[in-house]
Amino acid sequence: MAPTSETLTAERILEATEEVLRRHGPAKATVVDVARALGVSHGSVYRHFRTKAALREAVTKRWLDRTSGELSGIVAADSAPETRLRDWLAALFAAKRRKAGGDPELFATYMVLTDENGTAVGEHIADLTSQLTRIIQAGVETGDFAATPDPGTTARALFHATGRFHDPCYAREWEEPGIEADFTAVMDLVVRGLRA
């Protein structure tokens, strides 16, 4: 292996892993392929990620965290809770659509990886529902939303109720005619329910 002039970091390894997965798919991508792409030995990769499974879990988490990061800014925005809720769900839908339609090979790869990495997916969903909980709680505190015994339960119900617009199992439907109107109708229904 030719020595690399850049310091090998976990982030560089994850970037290379994503590219290798895009090229080879999850069934054929190996740690050796990642090392080759970086110009290092596979032992160097293993110093950062002890197993192939750990590397795949880290790249899955990184992919999921991008969406969480985009959405966290909306949660912290200084706008009305209803606006934040609508913006947050619209941004989640847009992010998932962008991933599915903008890079279908990588999206298909991540579908396989997320099936393997239930822990990363569970943490991602917990983070998303936590963000929703903060928006619901803010709405209750301002009086924009009706009081609820448990904003967390309401947030989880809302997350599940809008699953058609962010659960990857519905990705084929996201480009169908009328999906935007369906999303708007569900959002309007949800907001009316939260105000009740």
Give a structural overview.
The longest helix is centred in the middle third of the chain and has 25 residues, at 118-142. Helix 4 (52-75) runs antiparallel to helix 5 (81-102). Helix content is 72%, strand content 0%. The relative contact order is 0.11. Mean pLDDT is 90; it is low at 1-5. It contains nine helices and no strands. It has 196 residues and is mainly alpha-helical. The chain has helices spanning 10-24, 31-38, 42-48, 52-75, 81-102, 104-116, 118-142, 151-161, 179-195.
Itemize the secondary structure elements and their pairings.
Blueprint: H1 10-24, H2 31-38, H3 42-48, H4 52-75, H5 81-102, H6 104-116, H7 118-142, H8 151-161, H9 179-195
Helix pairs in contact: 1-2, 1-4, 2-3, 4-5, 4-6, 4-7, 5-6, 5-7, 7-8
Question: What's the SSE pattern?
Answer: HHHHHHHHH
Q: Tally the helices: what do you get?
A: 9
What coarse outline follows from CA principal-axis ratios?
elongated
State the total count of DSSP E strands: 0
In what range is the share of β-strand residues?
under 5%
Give the helix/strand class. Answer: mainly alpha
Radius of gyration: 20 Å
**How far do the termini sit from each other?**
65 Å
What is the helical fraction, as a range of percent? over 70%
What would the keywords be for this entry?
196 residues; mainly alpha; 9 helices; disordered N terminus
Short description:
It contains nine helices and no strands. By secondary structure, it is mainly alpha-helical.
